[in-house]
Amino acid sequence: MKIIFMGTPEFSLHVLKKLIDDGHEIVSIYTKQNQPSGRGRKLAQNPIKDFGINQNIPVIQPENFKSDTDLKNLKSWGAEVAVVAAYGIILPKNILDSFKFGCLNIHPSILPKYRGPSPVASAIMNNDSETGVSIMLLDEGMDSGPILSQEKTKILPNETTGELTNRLFIQGSILMSNTLNKWVNGKITPENQIHQNASFTKLFSKKDGEINWNLSAQTIVSKIRALDPWPGSYTYLDQKLLKIISVSFEEQSNLDIGEIYLDHNINIGTKTGKIIVHKLQLEGRKSLNASDFIRGNSSLNGKNLGVR
């Protein structure tokens, strides 16, 4: 089958590679334009673009789909269906209507729960025990189209958003493969979502990563896992930014909120319980394991985090 693939982040490669392994003809790849990144604001690599070029598949990077030329170019590929995996650009109705079998999208939640840009982070932050993958037909709304298939999975105890997202898209690539085959052969009836049951997620920003030590230890750990890799979690030590990378928690503690206590671990007091930091990074320095950090900062006992 002739397919246009639309995706941008590296984890969407799982879906693209599965389609190729299944013998489908990927007539073109649509991906977002390379974005400036880092202090030098250099254009970051786009793993989907790099893969497409390496496989001799045409790669298209439109800014949007507002011009008639965009529609004409898309139709010229003669694709029967589009498969979308974290593309990052909203598709207007004239694009959605351009395919015989529509636009099939992978969304990493059990819709209608967690529509929007951050379903995986939201599931972890809310201490959900499970999440899953939905294969849906795109419509003009935000993740509101009819469902073709869904599959649940347990969230592992220490899983971060990055780890769980990657696992969900591996799972989703197989589900997409099976669903696409059934859909084009008329073996699936789309099921409308119950829109009144929908919940929505937000796009997290850098400021969301600042740790509030006046929360419970479990809540803080869940938030740190949820915001890894983006935007990351941080606090302040002697007015310097301190990234908190890996942690665990204990429910019992006699430490004050934000207070540091060093033994063989870095312990930090919270509203209820304490955080044990395993990996961290002080502003302007490389990341360190707790034991290495303690050796160079043994005078931290009794200091408080979060003070600016």
Descriptive key words:
elongated; seven-stranded mixed beta sheet; 15 strands; 308 residues
What does this structure look like?
It is built from eight helices and 15 strands. Strand 1 (2-7), helix 1 and strand 2 form a beta-alpha-beta unit. It is elongated and about 65 Å long. With 308 residues, the protein is an alpha/beta fold. A seven-stranded mixed sheet has the order 5-2-1-6-7-8-9. Strands 10, 11, 12, 13, 14 and 15 form a six-stranded antiparallel sheet that branches. Strands 3-4 form a two-stranded antiparallel sheet. Helix 1 (13-21) packs parallel to helix 6 and helix 5 (119-125) runs antiparallel to helix 7. The protein has two domains: 2-197, 3-Layer(aba) Sandwich (Rossmann fold); 206-296, Methionyl-tRNA Fmet Formyltransferase, Chain A, domain 2 (Roll).
Indicate the CATH architecture of the largest domain.
3-Layer(aba) Sandwich
Global mean pLDDT: 95
Strand order of the largest sheet: 5-2-1-6-7-8-9
Number of helices: 8
What are the low-pLDDT stretches, counting only 5+ consecutive residues below 50?
none
- The assembly state of the depicted protein chains is single chain
Number of strands: 15
Characterize the main sheet: 7 strands, mixed
Topology overview:
Blueprint (H helix, E strand, L loop, with lengths): L1 E6 L5 H9 L3 E6 L5 E2 L4 E2 L3 H8 L4 E2 L7 H8 L5 E5 L7 H4 L6 E5 L11 H7 L4 E8 L9 E8 L6 H24 L32 H10 L6 E5 L2 E11 L9 E3 L3 E4 L4 E9 L5 E2 H7 L12
Helix pairs in contact: 1-6, 5-7
